[in-house]
Amino acid sequence: MAAEGNARSAVTARLTENRLLAFLPAEERGRLAARAEIVHLEPLEVIGQPEEPITHAYFPLTGLLSIVALDEAGAVVEVGTVGNEGMMGLPTFLGMPLSPFQSMGEVPGEHARVPMADLLAVAVHGSTLHALLMRYAQAFSVLGGQSAACNRLHPLEERCARWLLLVHDRARADTFLLTHEVLGQMLGVRRASVTVALGILQTAGFIAYRRGEVTIRDREGLEAASCECYAIIQRQFTRLFPDDAREQEA
Question: Where are the beta strands (DSSP E) in the chain?
């Protein structure tokens, strides 16, 4: 019993690595922790298929998740990214048990996985979790819409800079794993085009890229190289998580 209690306490502590869960009162976070498990996901590891029931919610801790659209020929383009600011599983929370999109790992790392039924039992109307997820849904809709506009309107190197900035915000480190294959799928372009875009940013001294590993060397320069879409998206998440109120008292 003591070992089980220690394991559960460890899970509860890990949940605070997700910014949404860090804001929860201790009682709500504890109820989620009682049913949560910590799982590791690799890039392109699929956790949800189009038009299949969403059985679990995923709260990223150290990894990054991607939501992608597939066409009939199997082509892939990203429509949303979920990091430690959010949750994978919004459609079911909002009353839609199915999604037309596929969900998968993007940057390797750990996630808190909670059965969807248990999430809904905690995220009832009037709860802190319900309010946070509603606010997160608004921020996430801006991310998706702005990303779609960005893919249509801006050059690839600007789009690549915007995407790398979003990953950097969530990775909690200046260096993270990212392959040409993953980045190509996220941007909806061929690997050759990814090589060109990364080369432009590396030549400018903003990043270093080697063997599937990206290092951000000049954050301000990368922001200047990005289109305005990054700033628009980032403002939404700043409003979700004010700098002066990062956590509630446990």
Answer: 37-41, 46-48, 56-60, 64-70, 76-82, 102-107, 109-115, 175-177, 207-210, 213-216
- Residues 130-164 have pLDDT tens digits of 999 999 999 888 887 777 777 777 888 998 998 89
DSSP state at residue 188? T
Encoded amino acid at 12, one letter: T
- Whether residue 192 contacts residue 184, with contact meaning beta carbons closer than 8 Å, is answered with no
pTM: 0.86
pLDDT in tens, 95-129: 998 999 999 998 899 999 999 999 999 999 999 99
Pick the closest to residue 118 from 55, 48, 46 (CA basis): 55
For residue 183, what is the enclosing H or E element? helix 180-187
Of 51, 124, 113, 36, the residue nearest 82 (C-alpha): 113
Among 156, 148, 134, which Cα is nearest to 225's? 156
